[in-house]
Amino acid sequence: MIVIDVLSYTCIGIGIFFWFWGTSYLLGKRSVLYKLHSLSVADTLGSMAILVGLLLKIPNKWPLLILAIVCLAIWNTMLGYVLAYCSQTGSDYER
Question: Transmembrane segments in this chain: where (predicted)?
Answer without folding.
Answer: 6-27, 39-58, 64-86
